[in-house]
Amino acid sequence: MRLAEPADCPNHFRMTRDPLLLIDAIASAPDDATRSRLLSDGARDLLADPAAIPDIGAAAIGSADDPAARAAGSLLSMALTEARMARENDAPEGAALIDTLDEALAALDAARPFAPTMRLRLAQFYARAGLAPPPFATLSDEGMAEGMAGSGEMPDLGALIDPILQEIGDAPLQVHGALSELLAGLPGELAAMLVSMTIARPGAIEARLGLYWLLDPKPEFQLAAATALLSRAEAGTLAPDIGALLPTLRKWLPDNAARAALDAAIRRQMQSGATRTAAPAPAIHRAVASLPDGVGAQSLIAAVQIGSRRALAMGMLKQGHGVKDAFVIPCASAGEQKRMLASILDEMESFDVSPETLAAMLAHGLGEGLALGLVPAPGMVDLAEIFGADALLPRAGGTEAILDEIGAAEALAGLPAARRRALIDASADWAEHFDQGESWFEDTGSLRAAIARARTDKGRETAVWKQLSSRRDWWARLFALAAAVLKPGAEADPAVWLSFAAVAQALAEGRPMKRIPVMADIMAMTLDAALARSGGASGVSGAGAQAGIGPLLDQAGLGAAYLQGYLTALAIAPLQPTAQDWLGALLGRIEIPGMDEIGVLLEFLMIEANQADDAAADAKAVARSLAPLAAHDLRDWAAGFDALVTATRPSWPARLLGAEDKRVLREIKRIASGSQGDALRGELPSWVARRHESRR
Q1: Kind and range of the H or E run holding 158
Q2: Is 298 helix (H, G, I), strand (E, B) or coil?
Q3: pLDDT tens digit sequence for 92-128
Q4: Region 51-60: what's the mean pLDDT?
Q5: Residues 6 or more apart whose Cβ sits within 8 Å of residue 23
Q6: Is 421 exposed, middle or buried (0-12, 13-18, 19+ CB in 10 A)?
Q7: What is the pTM of this model?
Q8: What are the φ and ψ backbone dihedral angles of 193, each rounded to 5 degrees?
């Protein structure tokens, strides 16, 4: 059942929930999956509307023993992660959330300075999100002295490290992440000293931590790690397996003091003559890659076997950042590996490639990062052991180098000009064949401002074309990478990957963008996204619509939960109700001042109804929407659901309802009348999804 507005139209009229209710729902989540969904959905909501982020921050600085404070801290880190990614992409909501939080916490700190332990906790939240902690989340030298009670002694390194090693010592990369978070709020010189002291400890894991810290964004950490590894090499306590990785990592580092110290460590290790422990060579059973998305992010996955051990090796490349993330997930068995891989691939459009192709993509990411003065993600240490040092030498990462490497330049040169034009024209069909094409549009703060300034459709188009023109090289490289992903599976139809290669080459050579169909599509999608974000053709902004609609609904007693239940029932009615029946029952309760408000209200209800229809098809989505509802909210939800059933009784004929359906409807009516609904809450998601599938 589809209504007047398209299902993918964004909801400009989001009804915000009490952030404290969300925190309670996260703290009391019945399982990790539910908790994860609540965190990710809540973080995205906060990014769209950061007004509640100060409340989340205030809740997060409560007692570390309070489950609600821990839940708030997790939500805070997740929201900061979303904001950091948005800021990297020049989307203004990222900076808005970060600035809103920083201002609120800075004001609290100014009124009553945070204790040192609180500063360190806040620093962990920021570090976990990949952000540098602000001043209120860091210790000054004076604050450090206060934290050490004026003793002047260094922190107990064993007390800092040993509990982490005991808990996750079999996952060195996680140990590195945990320690880096603990060090984030310390003065830089002291933190670097602790890095050096940690690596100097005699354990094997401590030496491996040195490899990860070589790839830290902070130059002082890189230098501390390289110097400590040199000391271990000189003392003969650097294991050959660790030392063998140093030449590879050296090629990933910029030419700085850390690399000079690392060169000395490599020479000393070579002089020792130590040999590596014999180990089985890794086998890569399957390699998979995604196409780059609209912000240039690309996922790489390999199913790996090392002896009897199984794992998934994962990397994420991002244009302008090089290797953004990398890690290895151990698997208990071949079956678990297969299930985990299938679960991941269910969530993304992916293409099988050869292990060599996957390694080449990583190498191009390394090359791009090195050219930008960026080190790769620390987890690349683990991937180097899987793919081998020679496979991960940084390569030139530009469009021309990528096309040459996959043989595209030679293949295109051998084609007639008409055939090359046809390949470029074929890009008009990409959106029909590749899911990732839906993300290929521009959305930056400067572009939003330029579109907003334009007074005509022509002016808005001109603004987008100007933006695309400034990003010609960026889009050319994106399509070259897509060609590299698609080539291994294109034996049956080489025109697919050659089409991407031809567009990349045309962009690199300066072909007018308006003569490249996919660029015209990107221009149109960019304008569509801007129009949707501004509230559509009506010109009503999200904030304005919410301000106008909220009071109307409140006066009629139609809260968010009531409306959610009402529209869920609409989505699963066995027979589609008439608009007169379902809309009439709602509009009859609302005092509408004038015709303008009617239009806004109808647009709002159509959007909400379509989104409820989409959600009802997915039991997990229904569960996510029900999880944060407190008992009184669930009663409102049930009341709304029952009201729709009552208003559209002919759409619920008994012949189309089974015994279970009738029982659930009776239970919903009881909940609406005040009965407890906890027992039914867990049953509703699967029932709603089944009813949605069986409707007519």
Answers
A1: helix 157-168
A2: strand
A3: 999 999 999 999 999 999 999 999 999 999 999 999 9
A4: 93
A5: 56, 59, 68, 71, 72, 75
A6: middle
A7: 0.74
A8: -65, -40
